[in-house]
Fold 4-hydroxy-4-methyl-2-oxoglutarate aldolase.
Amino acid sequence: MSSDPIVERLKEFAACDVSDALLKLKHPHGGFLADIVMYSPQMQSGDTKIVGPAYTVKFVKNNHVNAPKPPNNYIDTVPEGHVVFISGPSSRQVNALYGGLMSLRAKQRGAAGTVIDGRVRDLAEQRSLNYPVFARGSGTVPAGEVARPSEINVPVKLNSDDQEAWIHPGDYIIADVDGVVCLPKELAEQALELMPAIVEADRKAGIDIANGGELAAAFAKHRGK
């Protein structure tokens, strides 16, 4: 079990709850990282949820010959309880950045799960491990012919033309069937203070609606809008 009390508190909430809190804090897009979805242990199904600090891995294209190289394979250094966050060199990357053997080792290391801003492969193998993997897409070809890991635990930018989002080492990653949220570590305490009231307001609004009440009235009464 994680020794980080923030992780333990975040486990009580869904990714949507975290986004609702971040919106109240005026954080762009509520921390949502668009177009990255659950591929394992099931495809967009089930109650799988991962929560943990981000352990970032930045990939570069092979033609970036002057880019640094890590001294060891990043998967052998993943800290227990962390979420491996892999940043691809392009949103149009065809080759998969991550495969089944990586998950086998990550699971041995006690990682909470893996999020890939790019493609994943070996889905049957991933699912047989019952290991959580979220990705932008899937594929068959490994990364080696076009890209390689370059830097570990550095800020990485989401590959998106529609939003600007950065994932910093130690930011909290919360991912479930609704998607992936990055909670900046400096906002974690503030967000956690807001979430119980947000969840309770929605619970009460749901009761009113289930009893035949109008949605607008339920929102006005419990959400204040």
Observations:
- The radius of gyration is 19 Å.
- The chain has a mean pLDDT of 94.
- The first strand starts at residue 32 and ends at 33.
- DSSP finds six helices and twelve strands in the chain.
